[in-house]
Amino acid sequence: MKKVVILTGAGISAESGISTFRDSDGLWEQYRVEDVATYDAYLRNPALVLDFYNQRRRQLFQVKPNEGHKQLVRLEQYYDVQIITQNIDNLHEQAGSSNVLHLHGELTKARSDRDDNLIVDIGDRDINIGDKAPDGAQLRPHIVWFGEAVPNIEPAAAMCEKCDYFVVVGTSMNVYPAAGLIHYVPHSSPCYLVDPKAVPISRNIKIFQEKAGTGVKKVVDELIAMA
Length: 227
Ligand code: NAD
Fold this sequence. Notes:
This protein is an alpha/beta fold. The chain is about 25% helix and about 20% strand. The strands form two sheets. The protein has a six-stranded parallel β-sheet with strand order 3-2-1-7-8-9, sandwiched between helices. The chain has a three-stranded antiparallel β-sheet with strand order 5-4-6. The protein is globular, with a radius of gyration of 18 Å. The protein starts with a strand and ends with a helix. The model has no long low-confidence stretch (mean pLDDT about 95). Nicotinamide-adenine-dinucleotide (NAD) binds near residues 9 and 26.
């Protein structure tokens, strides 16, 4: 089977009701990144940071995958499909996608703030000050904060190097290193971009300037027709 790699960002979850990062109505208009999404912020005010992610987790359990997430699942009958997501929600998994690599962590997991490899499933539970990991250290969200290393970028780059088709959905391509993944895609592999505010990227890419809910279906139909 040919390989399709799909890179998704906050935009694919927008129609499920989760705010994006940079749109003018975005969640992040209400917060400064430096206050809630950096390790320094966590050291300065852990209660605020834990509360911010507790709110995000509670919201996740009130929303559902949308048509964009669901359409991607159809592709698995025809292709070896790998999703690489910048999202910390689990809407791809809820929709039924089999292979999802999270670049920036997952809301439903927590980890020791002493040992990055000690990761636990927390589902919908809040993380509070005093909640301990198995090693006795404070639990922190399993999130890659701004300024932190992105351990999954290497496997993601290796997936991109081997793909036959590359699809980008709902990302402003502003957050690195994720935005650089397209440079690993072979020049012979066709690329697609679905985003209502798509801006041309420095390589040949077919743009669907529309929301994920309608645009993903068009890309999926086109790929299935070529399978
Ligand atoms: P971004 O906010 O920078 O970009 C979102 C993109 O989605 C924009 O280009 C916008 O035009 C597009 N968009 C908006 N509505 C859309 C729709 N209905 N269909 C398709 N596209 C739509 O987000 P980013 O590029 O993912 O980077 C932001 C960072 O913030 C990421 O690292 C991510 O981890 C984090 N984040 C995650 C979530 C989530 O998990 N759902 C939500 C917000 C932010």
